[in-house]
Amino acid sequence: MKNGIGHHAIGEPFDNFLLIKSSTKGVASNGKPFLTLILKDASGEIEAKLWEATKEDEHTFVAEEIAKITGEVSQYRGRPQLKIQSIRPAQPTDGVDQSDFLETAPVPKEDLIERLTEAIFEMKNPNLQRMTRHFVKTYQEAFLTYPAAVKNHHEYISGLAHHVVSMLNLAKQLKELYPDIDLDLLYAGIILHDLGKLKELSGAATPSYTLEGKLIGHIPMMVDEIGGVAKELGIEGEEVTMLQHMVLSHHGKAEWGSPKPPLIREAELLHLIDLVDAKMNMLNRALDKVQPGEFTDRLFAMDNRSFYKPLFTNEHDE
Amino acid sequence: MKNGIGHHAIGEPFDNFLLIKSSTKGVASNGKPFLTLILKDASGEIEAKLWEATKEDEHTFVAEEIAKITGEVSQYRGRPQLKIQSIRPAQPTDGVDQSDFLETAPVPKEDLIERLTEAIFEMKNPNLQRMTRHFVKTYQEAFLTYPAAVKNHHEYISGLAHHVVSMLNLAKQLKELYPDIDLDLLYAGIILHDLGKLKELSGAATPSYTLEGKLIGHIPMMVDEIGGVAKELGIEGEEVTMLQHMVLSHHGKAEWGSPKPPLIREAELLHLIDLVDAKMNMLNRALDKVQPGEFTDRLFAMDNRSFYKPLFTNEHDE
Amino acid sequence: MKNGIGHHAIGEPFDNFLLIKSSTKGVASNGKPFLTLILKDASGEIEAKLWEATKEDEHTFVAEEIAKITGEVSQYRGRPQLKIQSIRPAQPTDGVDQSDFLETAPVPKEDLIERLTEAIFEMKNPNLQRMTRHFVKTYQEAFLTYPAAVKNHHEYISGLAHHVVSMLNLAKQLKELYPDIDLDLLYAGIILHDLGKLKELSGAATPSYTLEGKLIGHIPMMVDEIGGVAKELGIEGEEVTMLQHMVLSHHGKAEWGSPKPPLIREAELLHLIDLVDAKMNMLNRALDKVQPGEFTDRLFAMDNRSFYKPLFTNEHDE
Amino acid sequence: MKNGIGHHAIGEPFDNFLLIKSSTKGVASNGKPFLTLILKDASGEIEAKLWEATKEDEHTFVAEEIAKITGEVSQYRGRPQLKIQSIRPAQPTDGVDQSDFLETAPVPKEDLIERLTEAIFEMKNPNLQRMTRHFVKTYQEAFLTYPAAVKNHHEYISGLAHHVVSMLNLAKQLKELYPDIDLDLLYAGIILHDLGKLKELSGAATPSYTLEGKLIGHIPMMVDEIGGVAKELGIEGEEVTMLQHMVLSHHGKAEWGSPKPPLIREAELLHLIDLVDAKMNMLNRALDKVQPGEFTDRLFAMDNRSFYKPLFTNEHDE
Amino acid sequence: MKNGIGHHAIGEPFDNFLLIKSSTKGVASNGKPFLTLILKDASGEIEAKLWEATKEDEHTFVAEEIAKITGEVSQYRGRPQLKIQSIRPAQPTDGVDQSDFLETAPVPKEDLIERLTEAIFEMKNPNLQRMTRHFVKTYQEAFLTYPAAVKNHHEYISGLAHHVVSMLNLAKQLKELYPDIDLDLLYAGIILHDLGKLKELSGAATPSYTLEGKLIGHIPMMVDEIGGVAKELGIEGEEVTMLQHMVLSHHGKAEWGSPKPPLIREAELLHLIDLVDAKMNMLNRALDKVQPGEFTDRLFAMDNRSFYKPLFTNEHDE
Amino acid sequence: MKNGIGHHAIGEPFDNFLLIKSSTKGVASNGKPFLTLILKDASGEIEAKLWEATKEDEHTFVAEEIAKITGEVSQYRGRPQLKIQSIRPAQPTDGVDQSDFLETAPVPKEDLIERLTEAIFEMKNPNLQRMTRHFVKTYQEAFLTYPAAVKNHHEYISGLAHHVVSMLNLAKQLKELYPDIDLDLLYAGIILHDLGKLKELSGAATPSYTLEGKLIGHIPMMVDEIGGVAKELGIEGEEVTMLQHMVLSHHGKAEWGSPKPPLIREAELLHLIDLVDAKMNMLNRALDKVQPGEFTDRLFAMDNRSFYKPLFTNEHDE
To answer: The HD domain covers which part of the protein (chains A, B, C, D, E, F) (predicted)?
Structure first.
């Protein structure tokens, strides 16, 4: 989506459909009402002001609606702003749909579920395999559509499954380098580690935190669920405790939300693999948006650093 | 137990029974074997060396056994040490029992269970009442014997119930001062907040951490249990989430083991009441051991402070 | 004051008197001058813009004046703003007074001074009693009108005395639970702990920090005063040092302004009681403003947390 | 070396050669001199006391000498101690050599240099390739014998090269998962990142810190060396700065010794790969020493954690 | 420059030349374009809006140009803003020059170079003297014009040399009080400590960070340069390492950018002298702008403190 | 005192008088009592064991007594220990005195009081001068004998006055470099900043903390004293507040014991001068004990650093 709103430069004209993410009424210094719109498509977001808004405008241009807009990308207080020249609500005949405006994982759902199924099939420990399969079956639909996070990394449709599959691939390669790793336990931990987000977040498209998400959080919620599923399947023994520990400790430190730090090898690895994949996802997407010789925007979740793209990068790749 | 080992001054003779907490073999600089014994009674602990120990001594004076010892309290590297003059194993005819050597709460079990039952009876919210009653019933025996912690505060037989009952009393008085408090929720949180310790610790008498205790911890274990009990009793609704949140957040901060800080009034109060009662328990017991005009030992769990007992304290009390 | 400005929802019309807290001149993008007014009554504050302000407006609508305003509560950048339709200065005939617009403690001054007097009367230690009585006598008028703080908690007329009386009640109840407490010392510490604020702050109605307040602070100022009063009354002995220590250590830690942490039992309790009462004051007032099922605004002085009010809270109270 | 001193249990007899790491004279409480010996072989270290040592003993049993010892492994203050029954210096006819007593990487030097050479051969960017090759050539001998650190991880003969080769393998696999990585830059960074240790440490066998190592440290020393080599080879352009940045930032944070954090993608990856390989080296070696169901010793460089080895680990591996 | 823009009070008229530091286009709420200008002279900076800007204005009023402006100093959101009444570009006949608008050290360049030369002449250690002289010769021009920093302290033309000369004077006086100081080493360290800034910053007039500055930083860059110069001059021995250490450690702590803390006496002193002179420069300039009895603005680099100027300060000085 | 106990190397014989700092009874593994003696002279301290001590020995060799000892300096657990061959109590005829064994400032008391008097004489502000003179007069005797601290820096007889005089000299020189400094205020602050130590510590010779010292601390005690003296002398105005602020803030930060950070220029300078003189005192004394090319012991109060003495230091000084 190279002609999306996220790729428009200051000064360029714009003429396309956009999804309204939020709409807030204000009063201008001339006393007239206006709307502040946050507009988005799959490539990014932009703010716009609809000056001298009528009562009808207020009811038409609301969150989750789609609008056809012509205008120009300008700048206000150092941030891009879309100057609206004309705006109208989308019609059924326009053939546009909310899902067209949401970013999606670069790998299709079919491939994601196939790789997940394959990983479970490879597991040899029956207790770990049964628990993992049970969860994937129960939550399959949501698992394949939810993002991995509200912002920062894999924050797009199917982001959670995309993140998990990347981590499974990474785990498989680490097993070759460090053969002592218990791959069954690591696979199970990877697949389940963020599954609590399906209850922590309200939905896949425009996720917000649920009450349970705010007061309990996805980690204790998932530890609880594993306990329940183990009882349901009649599974006892260390596998249950180890799997709960993997989920519980995967943030690495108490101050990052894990009341216990990793205390088994595979838990430590789960934490490291999660870190590597989340960081690479953030870095690659930020660097994709800049040219060699430029710095990216500051990345909040990477200590607010701004990364440089060297001039010579991969110039010798064929 | 004013003539217990914890109250002997350096230089005083000793002649009494003591419980062996641990026994370790060593070799002296003259090449002869000796035993390092940690000995205890309900008043405290002391180290002793049994020089030139025979093979028989090694098998007789082992952990959990009771011995009759005469000797003198001396000092080694600044810490008290019992110099053994004679030692023999206790006989059945001595009429001593392991429980005589363990510290116990200053309130009898009967009073503790009565107050607990009363508090549950006072609750008006049926969901909270049912869950709380269920837990107390299920765990009653252990609840009334376990300590509240391995060290620092209420680290004695029935310490957990003693701590809970103190907190219930404190809660009742706070309700009078701040009538908006939901006393049912606060009572339920107080009664259940540390119940996970029954599984985190191995037993009441000489508690150590279980594997599950080390890898999961009492807080997530209890959140999981509340989830299970609610399902078992068919209870749904906010009470379950709020009760899980109370337990989850009662350490106050992520770095202290609570992945969520208190986010409802009663959770904040639970945290504060827990703090007040634990601190008063530590302070009172440490100050009991010193005279007016003296400082206590350093209290590790109170930022390693050493507290002063003023000369005039309560001198005007009748 | 349920129809006060603090309780108006976005979109509601407003027609009432407000106290001008501050007035600042600006220039609009059309080149015309305007005034930014911060307006308040006992229920809260709101910002308003007076567009196209005349020279006369500039001199009429200044801080500490009262104005009659009609308008509508709108929103600007996510915060409420009062859209002014008409404005006029209050007239003597309007019968409004500055004190009508200031929040006041929910307990009348007479009750506060009565409880204070009673507590001093209960004290048995003559040295502590004489010093405490001397201070209360000397500062009585200011003590009964000053707030306990500029913001966060008990930040209203008589807030300091209200806070102190709450703490005295709490202390009395704790004495019942933990009878070793020296109630005289604790009472004296509670009554004097924040008295330095009478010199740290410039006044009761619209308090700001004095030069001495900024450069010395209320804690060392009060330690100094206790030293002076003891000399004046000819009191010597540990009571003076202990009382200075109570005041000095009541913030609990060096980084919170107490060069010594609490080192006697009553100092530790003073710190805890202060914490409990301040937090309950903040929490109760924030929760009063929201409905069950809602979250409060973020509370800066409580680690910026936003608290939830459960749906079922106290529904079973009669 | 399964019968080495590092694998002896308390109470087992010992009869073998050991390298003397240090020897210190003391005076026993009976007034007689004794020697405290730290003894080692490739499997570990142990302390021993040689009581009633003669003047000759003092001169015979000194650091870097080898001794034949019979005795028994006992325990002193909770740590193993070798109780010496007989001791004699090793003779030429014993056929033992200092290198027999030093731990060595599990991969032979020939394989390490082969993989290093191969990685350099794979590089396509001529500037990075020339600088890297120049360093490996210049320092080849030391590179293949030095440890990667004085303690914690890869602290054995050839440890540096072993660590680097593991990291190169990891890098190659990450390139497959995240194809945007500039593998040349990452390879160059991996090979050079710790090369400054060759000057920071005094030698391969019993390394200590050099004066330059203590006052400058391996990171700034290597940044300086890269600057010098670039000048010498007539190489200019961003490759030099990027390579210096890779080395400079590889500890990740200022407080860990990197004045700049990683600011290019490959620098971030270098930091992560270094972390993963160092942690896996520590974890695998610590877990190798314990049985399933046991915890390892505390690992200082991993936040002092003690790791658990699950009972079921890899039991399903064929 | 007492009539400079930095000394205008709110409400005062302005009529003078100003240098345009930056110019950004925006669109007003009436849909018309405007320019936001940051204007400066040697006394300070101010923001201004040029409403209804033409295309020609956009090209005329750009960064680094000088404009003649009449207007009035007003206030917007609590910060001064220049309300433009008329504006025209400066003409050659106006006789104004960019350098007229830049702040400069209060000591002329000639005096600075003289003191520098004198200090080098006083040095007795030939190795330190030769290295120091070489650097001063090589970089003399830039050394005498660069600021010591982009902001906070000595952030003006010749600021670096001014800072260095102040520090040399301070060092000379400390040598009298503490005669063990090695003055040669301290002088050399002072002169070279910030010289890396000549490459870290892009220029003297409107400095920004270079790529090497961002990715390597002035400290490692200078350690590298000293290494190169020592090789070039054929100097070996501890003087080189000590000088590198002085530069490396002068920020005092790892988290402030020094991978090694000061480990020789003169390095510790260099750090302290740097601190004292930077702080005095900030403090004196801030206090110069306020009257006795007032507080300065908050000083970001001094922990955001606002300093008070006592009423009686130096009133007794003749 | 070059042949003092602090300068003896391991293995050297010793034959001289030593002051007993402490004496503790223990029981050896052979069941016989022994004494652990801490012995000192003006050059340092050493531990010694008096084996098989008689009852008489116990009463003879007690703290504050002097003994004549012959023996040998050996080593135990890495620390020097004096092996006693013979010991006898000092006799009146030995002509030794306790003061011979205490370290003293390198400047005589007469010079210290002269410089103090001179500084007060130079002051022009009558209020500051009167208060300062009053304090010096009141406390002159103790001021000239007390140490500046119990350990770390200036921890010797007259250490406090020596520290203050050094700081006065430093202040005078800084005034030349930064003429805006108010020297009167700075002088007064320097002279009074640590005077509270006269009440915080129990005495000059073997200082320990008083009860008031432990519970209030020298900083608030001195703020209180200044308040009292100002009242006594009838002095009002900012000088009193500023002087209290100087003392209050001289530790620089809340976590270092200053509830307010420095908020006037002279307070900031007082903090810096205190830092410089304390550090130079520690550094110079530690470096005096080592040869060029060696590192000092770790200095606890300087972040536990060990400092290097370069080989070439001051070799060119004549």
So the answer is: 163-279
